[in-house]
Amino acid sequence: MDITIHTSSLPHDDPEAALTFYRDTLGFEVRSDVGQGKMRWITVGPAGQPGTSILLAPPAADPGITEAERRTIVEMMAKGTYGWILLATPDLDATFEKVRSGDAEVVQEPTEQPYGIRDCAFRDPAGNLIRIQELR
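The structure corresponding to this sequence follows.
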């Protein structure tokens, strides 16, 4: 089979804050931005990699979930336990400094992990965990 990962999704609860983080802090391209108000679906991705994207979506828009499930999602997002993604860069230290200077919440400074990778971690404005690994 020939399968690629095209788009992964993360929730957002504030589209403008999400745009500021993913576009301005991480340097991702905005590929689409549809909807209005807080009900916006924003697709972003790394420059030069048009085949890989992240869809930033409002979790409350899913018609298939109950009101209790919506409350649980909101609670998990507030705690930072709902969504996460792994990114990678060849220069972890420079990337860490750029993201930190964008006022992102630092979860972990660059650290050599016992399982053989070096990484750091942030939270985006919605509380999603963003781990960034160093490419070796």
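The radius of gyration is 15 Å.
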